[in-house]
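Figure S7 source data.
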Amino acid sequence: MTFLYKANAARGAEWARFFAARAPELPFRIWPDIGDPDEVRYLAVWKPPDDIAATFRNLELLFSVGAGVDQFDLTQLPPHIPLVRMIDPGIRESMIEYATMAVLALHRDLVDFIAQQREQVWREIQIVSASSRRVGVMGLGLLGQAVLQRLKAFGFTLAGWNRSPRSMTGVTCYAGERALPEFLAQTDILVCLLPLTAETHGILNRDLFVRLPRGAKLINVGRGGHLVTDDLIDALDRGVLSAAVLDVAEAEPLPAGHPFWSHPRILLTPHNASMTIPESAVDYVLETIGRHRRGEALPGLVDRERGY
Ligand code: GLV
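C-alpha cells for the predicted glyoxylic acid complex:
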C-alpha cells in the first residue's frame, strides 16, 4: 500500500518528511519513482498523469494538491475513486494575504504610482476612504469567504456573488446569474475566486466588464480560463477598467510576448498567490485517508456534477 505524490518535487521532499513522522507505516513515493503501480492506493497530484485508472488499478483516493480541480478530466475518472481537493490552512492564509495585498494595491492606486515613478512624476492622487470603496468577491467558497472576512478589518464596503445563496455578516450577498448585474454595478474592485467550470469559463469578459462602474479594477486569483485576454486588454485600453492584478493565465508559464507581460495597467504574478504548506497539507491528507477508511464523509470531496 503506497501513497504517491506527483507535484513540485522540492515540496514533495517535505511531504515525505511529514509522512515519515506521522504515518511511518504508509510508504510514500515521489513521481516518477512510482514503484509497483498496483500498490498505489493514494495519489496526490497537481497535473494528473494520463490513464490514472488503467495505471493505478487499486487506487482508492485521489487528491488534488491544490484547491482547484479543473486540471482533472472528471469524465476519465471512474466513479468509485473519490477526488478530493485540498482544504489547507496554508492555502487559505496565503490567499487572504495575496487578495488583501492586491485589493490594497488597487485601492491605493499602486499601478498609477508605479507608472509615475517610471516617469519621475511626483503627483499625489486623492485618497478614497475604504468605506466608499466597494469590493466584490465572485465565488463564496472557503477562500472567498475567508478573504472577505479579513477585508472587513479595513472598512471596505463588501459584497459577494455566488452560484448558490450564501450569507455572511457584513457582506451583501448575491446569488445566481440573475443577480450578477446588480452585484457588478456596485463593485469598484472585483476579485475572482470562482472555481473554473464549463459555466465559469470566460466569465470575465467584455459583457461583464461593461456592467462594472467605469474604471473599475479586477483581481483574478481564480484561473486563467475565467478571463478573456483580448477583452481585458481592450477594456484597459479604453478605460472601461483601470487596472488589473493577475496571478493566473490561460497558458502557464505565460508565453513570451503575451500582452499581460508589458501592459502598464497590469500587475502580474506567476500563479503564486497561494500554496499548500506541506505540514498542514499532510495532516489534511492523513485525516482524509482515515475518514475514508472509516467510511465517513470527506470534506473537500469533489462533486462531479458541479465540477468542484
Ligand atoms: C492553486 O491554484 C490551487 O488550486 O490551489
